[in-house]
Description:
By secondary structure, this protein is mainly beta. It has one domain. It is 9% helix and 49% strand. The chain has two helices and 17 strands. The protein has helices at 2-19, 25-32, and strands at residues 37-41, 48-57, 75-86, 93-100, 109-116, 119-123, 126-130, 149-159, 162-169, 177-183, 187-195, 202-212, 219-228, 231-236, 242-251, 258-265, 271-274. Strands 2, 3, 6, 7, 8, 11, 12, 15 and 16 form a nine-stranded antiparallel β-sheet that branches. The protein has an eight-stranded antiparallel β-sheet with strand order 1-4-5-9-10-13-14-17, with no helix packed on it. A hairpin with a 7-residue loop joins strand 9 and strand 10. The longest helix has 18 residues, at 2-19. The radius of gyration is 27 Å and the shape is globular.
Amino acid sequence: MFTKLALVSSLAISANAMAMQSMDDAALSAATGQDGINIGIALGTDGINISKLYLHDNDGLGTATGIVGASGTAGAIAINGITLKQTSADPLLNLAIDTNGASGTNGAFLNVAATVGAVDVHVGSIGVGTSGTVNETTATRGITETAPTEIITGLDLSLGKITANIQLGAAPQGAMIKVNSSLQGGLNISNLGIKDAAGGGTIKLDKIMVRGANATGDLDVNAGISVKTTGLEIKNNSTQAMNVYLQGVHLGTAASIGDVEVQGLNVANSTITISGH
């Protein structure tokens, strides 16, 4: 009996001693499944604020186009204020970063698995103006006018949580950024107005609702984003149909003409290419 107790005790002591042996960082990471880097970003109550954002077209609209008003003068799109606030307790951004070595036909690549939390985005007035001169001391340029000519009165955007995977290097997933996720609750845009500065009127949409054509309204987001020699390419791989509802369509200051409803909109396998000219 004592022999059996001694044997069991010795086995237990040996196991505990093995468990308490020190491990180097690589062995510890492999044992705990914590290889790579995790980064979590949470915003404060004020979120992210941008006072002004300018997109400068350095050569303007060339006179060779023959379009009325073309002068080849540098102009800018001016956005007056952008605010982004997270709407859940989860971090705004979670990143899981790993580096994978070459294997088989695939080369080495950096992989970043990203989760973006639900956010509300407010975009202020959008206008156009004449680009100023770059001030290298202050890293500013702005526009020469006191205020831009307004073309969009602003908008509010609500987005649910979404995930994406980024690969830099070999990119065996077939695109630099791969989004294959469900946008919970769809997409909401409100308070959008398109202004005719010459005519003085505004096309105003109280609310735009974009939903997946299903019981929950969740949108399937399946897209590949790549940087090609021809520019930025965004390919929609989703075959899901969408429902779009435009609530409160106003033309000028007159009463609303009503609502517009689109059911079963499908833009499967479409590709958007963005490039300079």
